[in-house]
Structures are given as C-alpha cells and as structure tokens.
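Researcher: Next entry in the queue.
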Amino acid sequence: MKKIGIGYEFYKEFIDQALYYVDKTLLIRDIVEKGGKVTLFTRPRRFGKTLALTMLKTFFEKEYDYKGNMVDNKHYFEGKKIMEAGDDILSRLGQYPVLFLTLKSAKQPTFENAFYQLKSSIMNEIDRHRYLLDSAELNDKEKDKLKLWISSDQNAYFCKPEDQMRMENDISVFSKAFGELSELLKKHHGKNVVILIDEYDVPLENAYFAGFYDKMIGFIRSFFESALKTNDSLEFAVITGCLRISRESIFTGLNHLEVSSVNGKNFNEFFGFTQKETEQMLMDYNLSDKVEEVKDWYDGYLFGDAEVYNPWSVIKYVKDHVADYNSLPRPYWSNTSSNSIIKDLIYNADDDMKDELDRLVKGGTIEKKIHEDITYGDISFKANEKNDENLWNFLFFTGYLKKISEKKVGTQIYLTMKIPNLEILNIYENQITDWFDMEVKKKADFGILHKAVLERDAEGISEFVNSILEQCISYFDSDESFYHGIFLSMLYGTPGYSVRSNREEGNGRTDIVLYPNRPKDPAILFELKVRKKFNEMEDGIEEAFAQIRDQKYEEGILDDGYAGVISFGVCFCKKSCIVEQYKA
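Model: Structure for this entry, 584 residues:
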C-alpha cells in the first residue's frame, strides 16, 4: 500500500515519495481550454487547492535548479491522465516563467505582522528568480531593481515612526513587485508569465477578525491591480480562496476574470473526491465495507453538478482505519481551522436564527437568497445587527451548508440548503453545547435551585429550570439525554449532598439521587420523564410516580441505611419543565 500523505501539500512530494495521489491532472487541460485570463477558484478549506496549484506550477514552469540548469518535469506526469490530453496541451509543459505565492502566512494579530509576512513571501518568490541577475536580456537598471527587492530590509515593523515610514514605503514597493517582475521575466524568457496565488482571502479573513480589514484590503487591492489588471506580461493567472471578494474592488477592472465557485458549473470534480475516487481509495486500502460510513460522514458537498467528499477527512479516515480497523469516524475537518464563524453565529443568534439552526441540526432545510460577492465586511455577528442573509451565504460558500436545490425569482437566485454530513453536524452540535455551557449555565445562580431543593419547593425548582430552558436552542428538544445531563449538572454543588446518576436502588435504576453527607438528612430522588406534547406532561409525572412506587426506589435507599427519602417527579417538554413531590 502506498503511504498516505497527511500534511503534504506539494505535488512534487506526492510523486517523489510515491504517496497515494488521486489524479486531478486534467485540471491542467481545463485551465487552458475553459479558464479565463484570471481564474478564481473558491472552495472550502482543505479541499486540495494548494495541491492543485503546485501541480499547475510543476506542469507549466520553465524551471531551473540552483546551478542554473533547466529542470525537466515531464516525469512528474508519466502515467497521469494529462498525458492523454493531446499535443496542444503537452506542448505547454515547462514553457512559462511562473510566479507562485501563498498568502497563508498572513494570519497574524496585527497589520504590521501580517504585512511583514506577506512581504517575506513575496521576497522569497523574487529570490527564487535571482538567476535574472545574470540575464543578458536585462539592463543594469532592471537588475538594480531586482537587487533592491532581494536585499530589502527584513526587520519586523514596530510602532516607532521610522518603522511606520519604512512599512509605508515597502507597501508601495511590494504592491507593484509582481507586476514589475513579470516584465523582467518576460524579457528574459520571451514568454508571458503564469501567476498562481493560493489562499488569497486568508489575510482578509484574519484582518476582519483582528480589526485591520481596511488596511489589508488596501494592500491586496494594489497588489492584484499590478499583478493581474495592468500586467501586459501575464499569460494567465489562477487564484484560490474560500470567498469571492469583489465589493471592495479587489477585482475591479478584471473583465477577464473567470470565477469557479461551489455553485458554478466548471472544474467541479477537481476539488474534493468523487464517489468513484473515494470508493477506489477505500478498496485500495481494504476498506470497501466502510463505504456507507464514509458517505454518511464526509460526503454531501455539491459543487455545481458534482457531488464530492471532503478529501482531507477521507484520507484521515483511511489512515486511521488502516492502523485500527475498528476505530470510529471522527470530525477531522473541524480540527483544521477555526470554527469561530459557527460559534459567533450561535452565540449571537436571535430567536429566528435559533429556529433555523434548530431546523438544520434536526436534518431539515432552509431557503436563502444567494449571491457570490459576499465579503467579510458584510458579516456581523453582533446580536443587534441583523444580517442573517449574508451569514447563511458565508456558511454555504465555506462548506458548512450544501445546496439541495435552487430556483430563480426575477434576477435573484434562492438555494435550499442543509448540513452536508455527520462531520459538519458534529461541529454545529459541539458549538451549540459549548454555547450552552459558557453562556447559559455559567451565568446562572444555581444557589437558587439548591435552596429550592433543600426546602422541598417543587414550584421553585420548576421555575429555575424553566428559566434555563428558555435560553436553549430548540435542538435539544429531540435529545432526551440532554434533559438528564443538564438537570444533573445543575444539581452538583447542592450543600451537604453528593449527586449520583443511574444507580441501582430497589428493583431498578434511579435517574438522579442526592445522597446526604450527614446521616440524619434525607436522600433526595428525582425521576425524569420527557413528553412531546404539553398536555401530556401530567401523564409524565404520573409515570414517574408509578416508577418510583413499582420499582421500590425509596425502599432501596432506606435499606442502604439512609434516614429518609424525598422524591420528585420531573417532566420535560420542549422548553418547559414541571416538578411535583411524590407522596407514597
């Protein structure tokens, strides 16, 4: 079996180290035949965008080694689908100067740090082409410009005036660097330049949450204008990211921009694994009987008309199950990036949004107007700023929702959407639970409940529990274990008592019992029931009482030597609770 390349992102590594590779090389052909002058791919994180770009770089680049000798990359594609694409495509192998830039490193806490990382990445790519210093095609002035870029001050920026002045100068210089370097490369090679930019929106997402969005937009806009808009030396460019950022005029004037989003029609099988590719990988690792489990957990993304699996999660699943066939599926994707979007959505959801979240986590759908020019500047997670339409758009384009169907009303497109699979459902469920633990339970004064319990105040217990349930997302209504767990957690800390759950007493297992620390105090028993309808709650109480009586719970506790027992029947229905004391 071939090694599974966890953590590998570069195409050459997959070939050099004989890693398992799902052949996506026909993307090369489609870029030539269907791509624009500038093609933007927007896909969720971890769906193979970096691997795709490095594959394009390997194919198109006229590459030199450290001694200045040309590198033949043809062997990297031997046996791959692209070798059957025809002479027109294959004649482009190794023919172009390439500029490759990833913007992932710009995820920093301040603009100064973020720009410093961007500048360093740009400088590294310029340095990769330092062979131009020996070019007979460039004059001394052009070589001096190249030397200036390569030897630029690499010290970090601080708040000192001189650092700020240096940074402003560097912003001006390096925002134009790729456009100007393209001219030098074309002059040396006699060929236009291919530009590949990976994860272009990472600096923008980070800047939005870190509070310097406008500054970052300014630099990215200038950089793109020089590299992609006014660049006469550009053959074509490919850019990847999660969102199409257009409203801030990043792509203004790029009339030749081809956008391939998750809702587009082209290129859709090149990001993510198809059903056939997933089944083949499972078969290659003797896991064919796991097809349905993998489908439930990691399938469900609809890119255009192509249904695809999350590739990161599939390869992690396969690797884990090769090591331990009986291991359980896990939400691998949730651990690859921040889920702050989901968290903030839930923390600040109003009643309408809570109802929609409830519908989604229960397997239902929502219908929303969709537009592809959603931007980070459009998103607000503050409870008093209503923009749920943009928020649902954001969740769709970043992989947290999938399209079920679409319709057009006038000029507007509406999508019916749902949660894609069990992996993403797990993210929602965990964030809802975390929200409840952090925002509801931690703010409650459980001393009020404990006092009511000790005073045998059934109405007081009921009122307190109802005040907590009112703040819940209705999703919990479908989970009987939630009521048991939340009520149990609220009883911890009752003065003078220890809490036990599902302990054998009498002829059965009690739901919850508070056992006294002092022998003269009574034990306190709670038997819990759940009903779907409000008018059935009293029947639930009667059932609880009957179980206490028939299973002889109180007799069992008294046989253990406790001085007495106080028992309560508790019935939950949706966000309501009633509590009544049992009388033998």
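Model: The CA atoms of residues 129 and 529 lie 72 Å apart.
Researcher: Noted, moving on.
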